[in-house]
Write a structure and sequence with these properties.
The complex is a heterodimer of chains A (about 575) and B (about 350). With about 575 residues, chain A is mainly alpha-helical. Chain A contains 25 helices and no strands. Chain A has 2 domains: about 190 residues, MetI-like fold (Orthogonal Bundle), CATH 1.10.3720.10; about 300 residues, MetI-like fold (Orthogonal Bundle). The longest helix of chain A has about 35 residues. Chain A is globular, with a radius of gyration of 25 Å. Chain B has 8 helices and 21 strands. In chain B, β4 and β5 form a beta hairpin. The longest helix of chain B has 18 residues. Classes of the chains: A mainly alpha (about 575), B alpha+beta (about 350). Chains A and B meet through α1, α20 and α21 of A and β7 and α2 of B.
Chain lengths: ~575, ~350
């Protein structure tokens, strides 16, 4: 329902616009407001405020402002410089690797493999392995005494390992390989939407394919490449898992690991320094996010000129050899990013003891039995962690999707007061690194009874859930339009009943898709629980990270198999829906 | 129930979509809001339903004021007891035919027995009783249109509103549904306001037509006959088929002098010497006939066979006159014919 221009509103109209009249409007407005307040506004606001508090946690109600924690940061410039440089090198390297693999695979799939649904699916499947699980696999394969390391030493008769996975290069390799599906996902539509006329005009002008790629295709997709680069860069810069396993043991600290392993660790533990560092980190990511938004608007302008989705792309004549090469490339990627790490953890989880064995008679489920019996090495809280993970994995996507659907409903269908602001606020977490948001929750709740309970994780994971949920809710409601709700209103139903009885069933597939995406993201997330869990509120991802860092390989690989199994099926269903055209606009 | 719209105004920013319109739909009357795209007819309908919030004027149904911004009265849609049939059928795919129709009754907490009885009554009325358990995804366009109507009338609303409900249907189905809607409305006897941009649709269905112009004002209201035969503006004349228009000068008291001669018409509304436009419809041109006045002679330039009629283009000097009659007779291209236009069928307007 359209609204009048705000500049010409009378007092009555202003009152109508900003003060909800019906009970349903008030319930919707207040539900959204309080959800966003607790999940986003308070944590982010509190980082900013408490970073200026002279001490934290606040004791005796005394609160004084100081710049001391910021001056500390900049007095220790070498530490700050080192963390920033490491983060940039790590993010740049992983992004470069991911976008190269992703773009090449996307180009080949569009031009030579006719958008093959199966090739798309194969490219996306490896992302279903949580990175904390894949890391276990990579340590087993490429660690100092890893299976592949030993094999290479034996084959080439080397005196020592030719590589060191616990290095910035190891971090780049592992993160890059596992981020490639996201690059593929973002680059595929960009290449798919280049109309055939672009290539054909170049061919008729006499250019060959290589020249066409260099002078036409690449410049045309460049805005998409740039926005994908920036998106992946910001996303990678503050990841926790890979740097925690491969960097921290070698004292290579990045944005993702500095807070848990420097500022909140050891004798110098300081919440205040962690808070001011969070603000520093948010400032850096905000700069990149602004560039990202600029790149995206350039991408949108190109899309307007190209006419997104209106015409078929030019397919290139494809020989068996070229198709074979393309499929080999995707197959090789699937082996490297999926089968190798998963095979390694599965194998290791089935072989009791430290040594890897090829003797099938030694395979057993002993590690799994030990884990569930509570006898596994390195963990005391596995069953509780599994229960907590399932609990947040089921509840958070459900409430998160409901909140997002409600926000989109308020904005797109009923145009409730402040709804545009709500949509903006719900997407703010995209710009704030997870570890900083986690710090925000810590600062809000550390002095409340919910700190140290499962409930704080439940709230904090919504910061992950809302930006994902909005990506499904907004297009779903655009597709449904307002008339279905208007029919329901004319039938006598209120806004909430119309939402429940008409809207939710109509967008159930989008709801389930968003639910699965959120679920897969929540159960693997490390950056949120790493600062918030305590004894009693452990989750699998954290438990796994802990045993892996402590070196209990068998337990880690067994946990890694389980977390992968929990994640991979919903991920595959979701990606199947996506590539088979069942989901639009994500 | 009688519906009354008084001085309704609806603005979107600087644009006035509905500009001070007033009309009454009497109890049981079928009223159509007719007009070109963007004339504000749908906005008017949505304002009656409460889906838009008017900026001025009053809407009442019976004795109840539904909206009056000057008194800060605005009853939400769900409390207005109106039935609304939308352009896109919006038959909910997750519900069966029965459940689609039962929804408004469930919202109103009717008992299961009452729901069964009322839903089956309206399904029978529209010939859908055998489809009650069919998933609505398996319905044809016509069946969806019927479900849409059933859902809007099942709870016996005070007022039934239609927003171009036949636009998505093919021609034959559109004709069939037109009569069906008229029949259902007359069986149920419910006051109806129907929005359409189709002049034949409005003429077939309506007891009263409210024709709106592109400025969001009412151009003319009355019966189909009134608007067709007594258009009071060039816009109304054009909208209802239009046809031949010739500009001339008023020569009191004889008539209007044009390039092809003098038209004997009533010129009392005009000042002598002022400009005026002559308009008449093709069927008012009587080829081969002669009257006391308004007789001409011209050459047949072209003849088109339109199925039920023939259309003739007759040139008189530099002006081409379009005529239409059921048979071509011995009229052939290139021949000179006499024709007559009845003075009562000639409309006169001031130029825009």
């Amino acid at each position: 329902m359209s609204m009048p221009d705000i500049n010409n509103l009378s007092w009555n109209e202003l009152k109508y616009k900003y003060i909800p009249e019906t009970r349903d409007q008030r319930i919707i407005l207040l539900s959204i407001f309080f959800s966003l307040l607790i999940v986003i506004i308070l944590p982010i606001g509190s980082i900013l405020v408490f970073s200026f508090a002279d001490s934290f946690p606040i004791t005796d109600g005394e609160f004084g402002f100081t710049l001391r924690h910021y001056t500390y940061l900049f007095e220790n410039l070498s530490l700050l410089y080192e963390i920033t440089l490491n983060s940039f090198i790590y993010a740049a390297g992983a992004t470069f690797l991911a976008i190269t693999v992703g773009t090449f695979a996307a180009f080949f799939t569009v031009k030579y493999l006719n958008d093959s649904m199966w090739v798309q699916l194969l490219m996306l499947i490896p992302y279903g392995i949580p990175s904390v699980a894949a890391l276990v696999g990579w340590v087993i394969l490429l660690g100092d005494v890893g299976v592949l390391t030993e094999a290479v030493i034996a084959v080439f008769n080397l005196s020592s390992s030719p590589w060191d996975i616990r290095s910035i290069w190891g971090m780049i390799f592992v993160e890059g390989v596992h981020t490639a599906p996201i690059a593929f996902l973002l680059m595929f539509p960009a290449i798919r939407n280049i109309p055939a006329a672009m290539d054909e005009a170049s061919f008729t002008a006499g250019a060959n394919r290589i020249r066409t790629f260099r002078q036409i295709i690449l410049p045309v997709v460049w805005p998409s490449v740039l926005s994908t680069l920036l998106f992946l860069f910001v996303r990678t810069m503050a990841t926790v898992t890979t740097p925690a396993v491969l960097g921290v043991p070698e004292r290579i600290f990045t944005f993702g690991t500095a807070i848990p392993y420097i500022f909140l660790s050891g004798a110098d533990l300081s919440y205040s320094k962690a808070l001011s560092f969070s603000v520093f980190m948010i400032a850096i990511t905000t700069v990149f996010i602004l560039y990202y938004l600029k790149a995206q608007s350039a991408e949108d302008q190109f899309t307007t000129v190209l006419g997104a989705g209106r015409s078929e792309p030019r397919r290139y004549d494809s020989t068996i050899l070229k198709q074979g090469l393309g499929i080999t490339f995707v197959g090789a990627y699937l082996v490297i990013a999926g089968l190798l790490p998963f095979g390694a953890i599965l194998w290791d989880s089935l072989v009791p003891g430290i040594m890897m064995s090829t003797d099938l008679s030694q395979f057993s489920l002993q590690n799994y039995v030990a884990l569930f019996a509570g006898n596994a090495q390195g963990t005391f809280a596995w069953r509780r962690a599994l229960w907590n993970t399932i609990l947040v994995g089921v509840i958070v996507p459900t409430t998160g999707m409901l909140i997002c659907m409600l926000i989109a409903y308020a904005n797109q269908i009923i145009d409730i007061a402040f709804s545009k602001t709500f949509v903006f606020v719900a997407s703010v977490p995209l710009a704030i690194p997870g570890i900083a948001r986690s710090m925000g929750f810590l600062s809000v709740f550390i002095q409340t009874p919910i700190y140290g309970t499962w409930f704080i994780l439940f709230i904090a994971y919504h910061g992950v859930a809302l930006p994902i949920g909005m990506r499904y809710a907004s297009p779903a409601l655009t597709r449904i339009g307002s008339e279905n709700v208007e029919v329901s209103l004319a039938s006598g139903a209120g806004l909430i009943r119309s939402f429940r009885s008409i809207l939710l069933p109509l967008i159930s597939k989008d709801f389930i898709a968003g639910w699965m995406h959120t679920y897969v993201t929540v159960i693997r997330n490390v950056s949120i629980p790493i600062l918030l869990y305590t004894a009693g509120s452990e989750v699998i991802a954290i438990e796994l990270l802990t045993v892996l860092r402590a070196g209990y390989a068998n337990t880690a690989s067994t946990m890694a198999v389980i977390i992968t199994l929990l994640s991979i099926l919903p991920h595959i269903i979701l990606q199947y829906w996506r590539v088979s055209g069942g989901l639009r606009g994500r | 129930m009688k519906v009354s719209v008084k001085n309704l105004v609806k603005r979107y920013g600087e644009t006035t979509a509905v500009d001070d319109i007033s009309f009454v739909a009497e109890d049981g009357e079928f009223t159509t809001l007719l007009g070109p795209s963007g004339c504000g007819k749908t906005t008017t309908l949505r304002s009656i339903a409460g889906l838009e919030r008017p900026d001025g004027g009053q809407i009442t149904i019976g004795d109840t004021v539904l909206s009056d911004p000057s008194k800060n009265i605005f009853i939400p849609t769900q409390e207005r007891n109106v039935g609304f049939v939308f352009q896109n059928f919006n038959v909910w795919p997750h519900l069966t035919v029965f459940e689609n129709v039962a929804y408004p009754l469930r919202v109103r907490n009717y008992s299961e027995d009452e729901i069964e009885e009322k839903v089956m009554n309206v399904l029978k009325l529209t010939g859908l009783e055998d489809f009650r358990d069919r998933p609505s995804t398996q319905l044809s366009g016509g069946q969806q249109a019927r479900v849409n109507v059933c859902r809007a009338i099942v709870y016996e609303p005070d007022l039934l509103l239609f927003d171009e409900p036949l636009t998505g249907l093919d021609r034959n189905l559109r004709h069939q549904m037109r009569y069906e809607i008229k029949r259902i409305q007359s069986d149920v006897g419910i006051t109806t306001v129907y929005v359409t941009h189709s002049q034949p649709e409005a003429m077939t269905l309506a007891d009263k037509i409210i024709l709106m112009n592109p400025d969001g004002k009412i151009a003319q209201q009355g019966t189909a006959d009134d608007l067709y035969y007594k258009p009071d503006s060039k816009f109304v004349f054009d909208f209802f088929g239009g046809s031949v228009e010739i500009e001339g000068t008023v020569t009191n008291p004889e008539g209007i002098q044009t390039d092809i001669g003098l038209f004997s018409v009533d010129v009392s509304p005009f000042d002598a010497g002022s400009s005026a436009i002559i308009g008449f419809r093709p069927e008012s041109v009587q080829i081969g006939k002669e009257g006391a006045v308004n007789n001409w002679k011209g050459e047949v330039e072209d003849i088109n066979f339109l199925g039920s009629t023939y259309e003739f283009f007759i040139s008189v000097g530099d002006v081409t006159i379009r005529a239409r009659q059921p048979r071509s007779g011995d009229i052939q291209e290139g021949r000179t014919v006499n024709f007559h236009i009845v003075p009562d069928d000639i409309f006169t307007y001031r130029p825009y």
